[in-house]
Please model this.
Amino acid sequence: MSIFVFGFKLPQEQKAAPAFSLSSKFIEKFSASADELFVLTSDYTIEIFAISDKREELVSQFMDTIQHEWHLPQENFKKDFFQKVGSEAVSHFFKRVIGVGQPADINESLREFCDVFELARERSLTGPFLDRLYQKGIWLSEKVRIELSLQENGTTTESVVTELAQKIFGKLDDHSALIAASSAECEKFVEKLSEKNIGHLYFLELDGEGIEGICEKFRGHSITIEQMGQVLQSIDLILVFDSGFEKLLPAGKVSRIMNQRNNAPLFWATLSFAHEQQSKLSNHYNVYYYDRADLENIVASNLKKQQKSQRTVEKLLENEVENFIKWVHSEELFRFGNIIGRSRAMQRILDLVAQIAQTDISVLIDGESGTGKELVAMAIHEHSRRAKNPFIVVNCGAMAESLLESELFGHVRGAFTGAIGNKKGLFEVANHGTIFLDEIGETSQAMQVKLLRFFQAGEVKPVGSNNTLTVDVRLIAATNRNLEKLVQEGEFRQDLFYRLNVIQITIPPLRDRREDVLPLVEFFSKKYANKIQKPVKRVHDDVEQVLYQYHWPGNVRELENAIERAVALARGSQIGLTDLPPQIVATENRLAATEVDDKELSLQELEKNHIAKTLKQYNWEYERVTRILGIGRTTLWRKMKAYNISNSLPRAAKHLD
Model:
């Protein structure tokens, strides 16, 4: 199995519409030959990311489809066709998420990419490999956005002029510009201002130059030298492309105009090569003057910063590509940090973790006991900028209020009986790191007030001290109670709840995401077999079925304990039914008990039921099901489509080259 990307740059007159990328007609041609598939259109390019061992077949189908749809000559197609395999394809995927090399705004490019990927996921076209690439790509894009700059600063004089004007005035909608003289270069500057919705544009004709064309193109107003004095009172930007303009505005006249404008800010850029007034104009209050040399220096500085950022991004990409390849060969396809999750619900949570980890946003995690709230909090910390600093876990429900206050905020000597010395609180210990407050719903109103002070000012006050300490700590909280209900009942402060609940992550119970059961079983089996040095290699099929159907009231924690026991009791290389806890075996609900009476069913109905039952019994693992049924992967897919047997689980592949 390999990962690859291939595509084609379309002629402009045949631009692919976004809907085309996921149309049924298009996808049906390829999904039977791929384990995972993601089709992306942008500008005039169609790209297909695929996980498959049928690369040549997919590429051939793609070529035939494109040439048929657009009647393209083969020589044109081959010229604009591209293909990347393995590490190069992984790097290409990351670059597409980040927006490297994309002409559009990075944020807009990311939004479009995410929207299309979500559509592919909804149609069960993606699986563990593309999902992991997507999550890592989102994480990378946030890291680049926060720590680096790829498209923030202009690298042309016209973009620098527009950015400087925006820094001075904010939005340009209510501001006007005067353009002195018309030239080919002038149009580039006016076009940039128009992209930012500049208000009125006035064009001043000098030396008999015709400006009718540019006025008409940008819907501007033509003015004469006689009208200029009145217009300047309401102008906020002046762009000069003719040195003769400065002679019309000597320093004294500029002073009078600024007085008439009540010294409102005036942005002045001289783009002509001969100028004399720089020092004089720069001395005027609220006149922001730049000449060509100033602007070109800013461009050079921005280019230098951008090149440095791009080198850093390349190193990040290199590391993440290497990490992805290592993960592929680790065979832990459903592991993200210490989280094991194949279900769509867990993939959504991991998407969110990747998106928010780089920020310092407060997170509230809720869910039943044993669902893995602490692991999600740890994943957020490990993928954040604080990862090298402490991650402190505090169980608020396990301590008395006085002890909890001392643990969190510390105390000074003599603060209470037994306080024989100063003690640092966990907030201080976690400085520059993350603190995880589990069971936050168990805290008292008095403790909630102290936590609120931390949120409002970043300060904590040790018990018995009159001084406060400023700390830099990210706070993640968790609860298995309904905090909104506690707020309504007056048991939890509303203001603290809103501070905590900036981002809410709800972890569903294991019974609602049974797709995660068998990956968890495999993970825990290996973990405890290595820990207690038992030769357990696999779990019996009957055991898998029982574990998959059990309702797991204790969630992942109960499952882990059950597998630890089973590994300890196993007498050979395989876990059997007798190794499971009695309560799990006793509640076994076998598929046979719910089977439909087959006596009066047609042959087609029998086949449909048998395929559906086998898929469900073996957790929709297609490779295993095809071996049991004795049919090929394409045949299985075709029969599932014919019988309308759908799978909400992402597809999985065992190995990736």
Notes: The two ends are 6 Å apart (CA to CA). Residues 292-330 form the longest helix (39 residues). Residues 157-298 form a domain with the Rossmann fold fold (CATH 3.40.50.720). Confidence is low (pLDDT under 50) at residues 15-22, 589-596, 648-656.
